[in-house]
Task: structure prediction
Amino acid sequence: MKFSQNYPLKNLNTFAINTKAKYYLPISNVDELMELTANEVFLNNKYFILGGGSNVLFCSDFDGLVIHMDNKGIQIVDQNDSYVYIKSDAGVIWDDFVAFCVENGFGGVENLSLIPGTVGASPVQNIGAYGSELKDVFYEAGIFNLKTKKIGVYTHEMCRFGYRKSIFKNELKNIAVVLNVTFRLKTEPVLNLSYKELERRVKEIINPSVKDVRDTVIAIRTEKLPDPSITPNAGSFFKNPVIEKNTFDEILMIHPSLKTFPADEGKVKLAAGQLIELCGWKSKQDGKVAVHPNQALVIINKGNASGNEIVEFSKEIQDSVFKKFGVILEPEVNII
Result:
């Protein structure tokens, strides 16, 4: 196998952190993964499975092997009057997959337009935006288990999806490599306009389509979020915190303007961006790191910041929010 050594990772992570991997290997098929498990480089080094690099923060050079899925293909595997089943390889860029679905008039992923990353990473994080989550359209995933060296299929139930989490992010982290994902989309789309700003804009369109929803989501994201290729960032740095209802009631007495989102029974989900903004962090800069002026959830690299500088900056935000609200912010970004 042809491993690259001291491989630069700057172009493989959207924070544009200038680090290197001791070894780097792109993988295009399951046979290569099988061969990899018997290779000395794999057996004698720690390893990390890299997707699109849009949810990772490297704090130093990676003293091991970075495995990068590079298989790319999309195919319709089944279709009936109500649903279409589409299988996408893990290395496909997520928004390219969304564009394919929308161009064919299939409904279910249009609200997830312009989310950076790859298809293979989408179930790991259970990506979500504008009232939709990956789990809403997920059917099954083909995986390769690096420990058992076996191929398997994980159904929706087996994935244990939750808010920004799945079995791939927990029990099977760095064990299961996602090879492909099959989605179940609607052939007669029903638009999800549960997000208020999206609803307001789309309702101005006569007979809106999934393409109209996609175009609107792209417009909203472009207005609020920086393009990682221009302003390095990893999107939402923190998860929206989910707290107990009685705890929220106590906080609300002091801060009555707090926004909430649906959560499990007895719990309340708060808007992390609002908490950060109310602590005065919006547009605040420290050295080469800053909070984006249009979205307080986004930490940006203003110019060759190190991963550690970004982590320290994020900890200051966490401390500030906890001091003011008694709420712990958990990073959504995978810190390496």
Observations:
- The domain at 233-335 is CATH 3.90.78.10 (Uridine Diphospho-n-acetylenolpyruvylglucosamine Reductase; domain 1).
- Residues 307-325 form the longest helix (19 residues).
